[in-house]
Amino acid sequence: MKNYKEINESMRTILIDWMISVQHSFNLRQNTLFFAINYLDRFLELKEIRSNKLQLAGTTTLFIASKYEEVHPPSITDFSYITAKSCSIPEIISMENLILKSLDYRLTVVTPNVLVKYLCILDGNIGISVKRLVDYFLELALFECKMLKYKSSVLSAAAVYSARKVLKLEPAWTPTLIKHTEYVEEEIKECGKEMHKLAQEIDNSSFNSLKGKYRTLYNLALSKVSF
């Protein structure tokens, strides 16, 4: 993205925050959000688009991910409506065609959100507090382009590690988790520190939809917590 003439990291951040608000409005699955952002980032690596088409790309990747993941996905009319019709149905169809061709129709991807569910199952001691913290750390990581340098497996492992550290669970990285991830603590510690820093800085961020999402009791009001 650093080679783009019109689109910068700040614009991507604003778009992802908006995509989270759409996920909340349509009650979409976490997987759908992570798939959509994966498609978006891969597409932006391959194609340079104008800044006035960025929301269209984000809307379209959510539309594609919804059809892939949801049992009852919102209609294309719903997606056009939620943009206040700034993205018309013909535009979404055209962008969908461009994105799918650019990605060579490779929509089955392994996201951190998928992997972390297996880690939570494997470690039988992981409770609801850890799970919510893990989700929080992974969503924070979505906003930062610098986090794209990490593999999905590292992100998922680091999120679990960071959650356990916050809750002072000992050991923070168990033999079971080492066995199944094949990562030792030193290999995920730096990624975990970056996630923790994002949580510390959220009050000064523009992640407004994420803040709202994690102010609820269901999400343990994590965006209000001082890390």
Strand content: under 5%
Please report the total strand number as a whole number. Answer: 0
Task: Return residue spans where pLDDT drops below 50 for at least 5 consecutive residues.
Answer: none
Output the radius of gyration.
Answer: 18 Å
Helix fraction by DSSP (H/I, runs of at least 4): 55-70%
What is the number of domains? 2
The CATH class label of the largest domain is Mainly Alpha
Q: Provide the residue-averaged pLDDT.
A: 91
Structural class comes to mainly alpha
**CATH fold type of the largest domain:** Cyclin A, domain 1
Number of separate helices: 11
- By CATH, the architecture of the largest domain is named Orthogonal Bundle
Shape: globular
What's the CATH H-level homologous superfamily of the largest domain? Cyclin-like
Helix and strand sequence: HHHHHHHHHHH
Main sheet: strands, sense, barrel: none
Question: Secondary structure elements and their pairing?
Answer:
Elements: H1 9-26, H2 30-46, H3 54-69, H4 76-82, H5 89-102, H6 112-122, H7 128-143, H8 152-166, H9 175-181, H10 185-200, H11 208-213
Helix pairs in contact: 1-2, 1-3, 2-3, 3-5, 6-7, 6-8, 7-8, 7-10, 8-10
List keywords for this structure.
227 residues, mainly alpha, Cyclin A, domain 1, 2 domains, 11 helices, 63% helix
Kindly describe this structure.
The chain has 227 residues and is mainly α. The chain has 2 domains: 9-102, Orthogonal Bundle (Cyclin A, domain 1), CATH 1.10.472.10; 112-224, Cyclin A, domain 1, CATH 1.10.472. Helices cover 63% and strands 0% of the residues. It has helices at 9-26, 30-46, 54-69, 76-82, 89-102, 112-122, 128-143, 152-166, 175-181, 185-200, 208-213. Helix 1 packs antiparallel against helix 2 (30-46), helix 7 crosses helix 8 and helix 8 crosses helix 10 (185-200). It is globular. The mean pLDDT is 91.
